[in-house]
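Example for tutorial group B:
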C-alpha cells in the first residue's frame, strides 16, 4: 500500500542528513515493514539505495503507518521515536526522526 509513497519520500533523506558527519561507507538501514532502504555516506554526501547495507552503523525499523505519517508531517519526532526500533548509533537515527519529505 505504501510502496510508491515511501519510495518517493525517502529521497528526501540525503538532504536531511547533509550536515551529519560519518566515515565514507558508513550506513543507516531503514526498514519499513517488509521494505528496506540504506542511506550510505559517500565521499562528500549521503546517498539513498533500495535494500539493506550489509554492516550498518544504525538500523531503524518503523511500521508503514508511522513512516508515512512521519515523512508527511503528521507525526511528531517524539511520537516517531516511540514508534521506532533503533539498533546501533542513536545519533545516526535522530535526523530521520525529524525528516519531512513534503511540507505544506
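The residue assignment follows.
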Amino acid at each position: 500500500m505504501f510502496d510508491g509513497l515511501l519510495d518517493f519520500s525517502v529521497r528526501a533523506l540525503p538532504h536531511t542528513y547533509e550536515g551529519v558527519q560519518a566515515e565514507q561507507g558508513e550506513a543507516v538501514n531503514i526498514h519499513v515493514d517488509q521494505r528496506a532502504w540504506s542511506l550510505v555516506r559517500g565521499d562528500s554526501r549521503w546517498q539513498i539505495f533500495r535494500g539493506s547495507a550489509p554492516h550498518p552503523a544504525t538500523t531503524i525499523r518503523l511500521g508503514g503507518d508511522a513512516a508515512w505519517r512521519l515523512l508527511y508531517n503528521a507525526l511528531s519526532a517524539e511520537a516517531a521515536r516511540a514508534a521506532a526500533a533503533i539498533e546501533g548509533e542513536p545519533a545516526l537515527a535522530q535526523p530521520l526522526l525529524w525528516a519531512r519529505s513534503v511540507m505544506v
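Residues 5 and 68 are 8 Å apart (CA to CA). Compare this with the pattern of hydrophobic and polar residues in the output above.
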